[in-house]
Amino acid sequence: MSLTASLFVTCLVDLFYPEVGEAIVKVLRAQGVKVGCPDGQTCCGLPLLNNGYHSQAAWVARRMIPRFEHAERIVVPSGSCAWMLRNEFPRLFPHDAATRVKAETMSRKVFEFSEFLVQVVGPDAVNASLPGTTITYHDSCHLLRGLGVSEPPRRLIRRIEGARFVEMVGSDRCCGFGGSFSVKLPEISGAILREKMQNIEATRADIVVADDCGCIMQMKGGLARTPNGPRVLHLAQVLAGEGIR
Amino acid sequence: MSQVALDRSFEERASGALKDLPLRQALGIATERFMAQRMNAFHNLPGAEELRQRARAIKEDVLTHLDDYLGQLADSVRKRGGVVHWAKDGAEAKEIVLALAKERGVKHVVKSKSMVTEEIELNEALEGAGIRPVETDLGEWIIQLAHEKPSHIIAPAIHKTRHQVAELFSERLNKPLPADIEVLTATAREQLRQEFLQADMGISGVNFAIAETGTLALVTNEGNGRMVTSLPPLHLAIMGLEKVIPTLDDLMVFLKILARSATGQKASTYVSLITGVRREGELDGPKELHLLILDNGRSRFLSGPYREALYCIRCGACLNVCPVYRQVGGHAYGSTYPGPIGIVLTAMLQGPGGSKELAAASSLCGACEEACPLEINIPHMLLELRREAVGERKVSAGERAAFGVMAAILSRPRLYRLAGLVGRLFQWPFVTSGRIGRLPFPLSRWTLNRDFPPLSPKPFSARWQGLNRNGA
Q1: A45 vs B410: CB contact, 8 Å cut-off?
Q2: B376 and chain A in contact, CB less than 8 A
Q3: Which secondary structure element, helix H or strand E, spans residue A208, and what is its range?
Q4: Residue B129 within any structural domain of the chain
Q5: Is residue B344 part of a domain?
Q6: Chain A residues near residue B324 by CB distance under 8 angstroms
Q7: Which residues contact B469 (CB under 8 A, 6 or more apart)?
Q8: Structural domain range at position B446
């Protein structure tokens, strides 16, 4: 029996971090998963929802649902986008029962990447080696509190051959990204980020792994200004064996 | 220094707070301790989740039958010799309090900590009428001496270091005092003892009011609540109308979660249950008991998306875990109630159109909902406030236009691809060795603190064709 996964790439991966998308394809294929990527994808619309533009977010969702409604399983490389698809899409159509039903059906097929690997492919679906590296993990807020995913990414990281996993203090605390929050209130966002970076640096890890490209953008952007700061990688990238300088 | 300056925006006030190092140091230490103690307290409580669900169910029942429970409460209080007053807003509440004080010739009031009196600015009204209110909770007394407002729901002076408190006491009491917590609390005790003995009226809040018995429950740690409610001949308790609960059994549920959520204690040092006036043969208690039940916007929330905000028991747990609150503290919010739930409660107090600026003061990380003992879905309420702000055109035309363009692009794949292409063509002036360190407004606000990633020369959608050819 071969598994099929339709990749919802997300706008951040498509435009800024296509290498994350490639790593996901590589990791899934190595596990025998047949990967598809429906045409005409854009974004889940979370930035619109987060800023109070619910009806505009509904336009985006309405255009996206038909592209995925027949997918067997939808794999999303970001906790926040997966949360949007799963939890919020059905709520966007309070007065349109037909679309709401489609959104609900679709929402049941949504898996965040680590969830898909551990729950669907198998709990030990890792075939990667990063000898001599120390890895720490940042819990993305929507992934952890929105979807309740805490253990799967950790389990996968621990299975990477040769890598040492260390928890950081406050791994479950926000990195200060928050979408447009980071631009609307940049000083506060920056102060939260500094605390996160201190906690990361205290682990002396070589790599910080996150499972949400928003957090990656924030932490990577901050650590780029720190000399010899650790690399920030998506979970899929370390599982694809990337991460050795 | 920590004055609330309402002529400035939240962002400006927050910016000031971020530069206030003693504030951030005090906040950091206190919120870390509160968080660790709360985690520990719940960790050691079997059936914690069931308790939370029971508490939610009690609150929901109360809100569904609010009129009945309030009527029952009023009857029970009257049966025990108390007098019940109703106020629809702060102005009415203050009128009632001042009229009562005037009738009894009150000159000197002692108060135990009460956020609802902060909410209606009762102290200012009393002072205006020539009555001297003295706060007797240590934290409240500190901020009263400093002419400030509480910066936390349960720890009003959380923003102050002990050095600052020593300085303040030394100045106000005209004697040099060391930054030694024992000396400072002993000083406060000595000063406040005199106030208790002189007072002709005690004003308290109410943590829970029990409809069945008319009992008013006060949860405190300093014992001052007990003196405020028993030493003066007249006790006035003020409560928001959502504080009523049906029975003493229900109280037990809330007592188990309130102190744990607030300070991480299993139980607060004092729980005072005040049922009626002093009876024949009793040695203490007030001769006269008045209960003022205040609406002040609460009933507005009974229906609609903010209903669960009325579940709030004011434990402050959501403040301690909020990344925004932890950085900027309570004064930056410029409202009586700060932090995540404070944003929602401010909307309740100010009515439609209020609190819109504050709704942006959240990264929507969800830590508040997780910490809340009543599991109030604060993030969704903040989203709802943001949606209302957009609907009421409380956001700038520039922002509306920007999100309109974003929606147009994201709902049209071709336009989206074109926008990516345009971005890639025009980003080169900003990219230096694969990094973007500075961008024009509004993205300059991003590059203030961190690099921005350049658009990849080849997006995933373009790479997919190759991957698909080579793939399975």
Answers
A1: yes
A2: no
A3: strand A207-210
A4: yes
A5: no
A6: 185, 188, 192
A7: none
A8: 427-470
| B414 inside domain | no
Pairing of β B132-135 and β B201-204: unpaired
Establish if B464 touches chain A: CB-CB under 8 angstroms.
yes
Q: Lowest-pLDDT range, A219-228, B149-158, B308-317, B463-472?
A: B463-472
Instruction: Yes or no: say if B33 and B175 are a contact pair by the CB < 8 Å rule.
Output: no
Residue corresponding to tokens 């003066």: B232
Residue A161 C-alpha, separation from nearest chain B C-alpha, in angstroms: 25
Q: Looking at the 3D structure of chain B, how many domains does it have?
A: 2
Listed in sequence order, the residues at least 6 apart from B151 whose beta carbon sits closer than 8 Å to its beta carbon are B2, B143, B157, B158, B159, B329, B330, B331, B338
- How do residues A84-112 score in pLDDT, each as one tens digit? 999 999 999 999 999 999 999 999 999 99
> Is 3.40.50 the CATH number for A124-239?
yes
B230 and B283 Cβ atoms separated by less than 8 Å: no
A13 in contact with chain B, both atoms CB, cutoff 8 A:
yes
Task: Please list the ranges in chain A whose pLDDT falls under 70.
Answer: 1, 245
Which chain A residue's Cα is nearest to B442? A183
Arithmetic mean of pLDDT over chain A = 96
Q: Could you tell me if A70 lies within 8 Å of chain B, comparing CB atoms?
A: no
Q: Are B140 and B282 in a shared domain? A: yes
User: Which residues from A are below 8 Å from B452, CB to CB?
Assistant: 217, 221
Q: Last residue of a domain, which of B233, B267, B299?
A: B299
CA distance A21 to chain B (A): 7
Chain A nearest CA to B452, separation (Å)? 6
Upstream peptide bond of B46 is cis (omega within 30 degrees of 0): no
Cα B225 from Cα B202, distance rounded (Å): 9
Interface of B with A in 417-436 (CB under 8 A): 420, 423, 435
B459, part of any domain: yes
Using the 3D structure, point to which of B253, B275, B299 is the last residue of a domain. Answer: B299
Residues of chain A with CATH 3.40.50: 4-119, 124-239
Provide mean pLDDT across the span B240-256: 98
In the predicted structure, residue B3 carries a pLDDT above the cut 60: no
Say if residue B428 is exposed, middle or buried (CB neighbours under 10 Å; 0-12, 13-18, 19+): exposed
- Stretch 239-298 of chain B: residues touching chain A, C-beta under 8 Å: none
- C-beta atoms of A63 and B412 within 8 A: yes
> What is the fold of A4-119?
Rossmann fold (3.40.50)
Q: How far apart are CA B316 and CA B110, in angstroms?
A: 24
Q: Which of B237, B308, B310, B246 is nearest to B277 (CA)?
A: B237
CATH code of the domain containing B47: 3.40.50.10420
- Interface confidence (ipTM) of the complex: 0.96
A46 Cβ under 8 Å from any chain B Cβ: no
Do β-strands B83-87 and B431-432 pair in parallel, antiparallel, or remain unpaired? unpaired
Coil, strand or helix: which one is A161?
Answer: strand
Using one digit for the tens of pLDDT, what is the confidence trace for A34-52? 999 999 999 999 999 999 9
**Which of B15, B323, B366 faces A187 most closely, judged by CB atoms?**
B15
Say yes or no: A183 contacts chain B, CB-CB below 8 A: yes
Comparing CB atoms, the residue among A18, A178, A217 nearest residue B365 is A178
